[in-house]
Amino acid sequence: MADNYLEKRMEDYLHAPATRKRTPSLRRLLRANRSYRGYDSTFKVREDQLRRIVEVATLCPSARNQQVLRFRLVLSDEADKVLRNIRLGGALPELHLPLPGTEPNAFVVICSTVEESKYVDMDLGIVAQSMLLQAVEIGLGGICIGAFDHAKLREELELSYEPLLVLAIGRPAEQIELCEVSEHDNLTYYRNEGVHYVPKININDLILK
Question: How many other C-beta atoms can be found within 10 angstroms of the C-beta atom of residue 175?
Fold first, then answer.
């Protein structure tokens, strides 16, 4: 992956020296925070790492300060309950992602204590992005998964509330590159020789004249 940033961050996290390290820039975190669909299956995400990721929700803004989101941690012993109810790589159905042996083994299922609304969705977007940035900061990575069987997942995990989004968390095992395009170009992600490319509209086309 690009400049081995995530690998270096994981090493820093596991072998943190007594001296304080400089916090990476937001821009660098954002570049490393990609939607990973393949993970190192030999690395098992720990509960303390998931808790650290979820903890950022206590710092995030909340519409009307309702704080309605709740989180179910899923570690490797329960991962199959989630894996059999999610779908990844909708734009690349021929690949049947994740590839065998690269499945994520940890998840955070985000639920709401109230019916979904635009305000709940505001919180959901803010919190999900913040949690994934925290994952990157400690050397991990993840992906937001909206394609899943809500009823079966709720039953499998015995959830008290309706699941809105699933975050897969792990040590990424794929290379993702951003490529600048115009607003009229094809925005569908694609793969070429093992590299996953994600088109992103350039800044000039994003700003309204």
Answer: 15
pTM above 0.85, yes or no: yes
Q: Taking phi first (over 0 means left), then psi (-120 to 50 degrees means alpha), and beta for anything else, what does residue 74 get?
A: beta
With beta carbons less than 8 A apart as the criterion, state whether 107 and 47 touch: no
What is d(CA 135, CA 106) in angstroms, rounded to the nearest whole number?
Answer: 12
Between CA 184 and CA 2 the distance in angstroms is 27
Query: Quick one: which H or E segment has residue 142?
Result: strand 141-145
Q: CB neighbours of 137 closer than 8 A, spacing ≥ 6?
A: 9, 24, 29
Cis peptide bond prior to 98, omega within 30° of 0: yes
33: CB partners within 8 A, 6+ apart:
129, 132, 133, 135, 136, 141
150 contacts 20 by C-beta, under 8 angstroms: no
At 36, which amino acid appears? Y
Q: What is the pLDDT of residues 179-204, one digit of tens each?
A: 999 999 999 999 999 999 999 999 99
Q: How far, in Å, are 5, 188, 193 from residue 138 at the CA level?
A: 10, 29, 29
Q: What distance in Å separates the CA atoms of residue 125 and residue 165, rounded to the nearest whole number?
A: 10
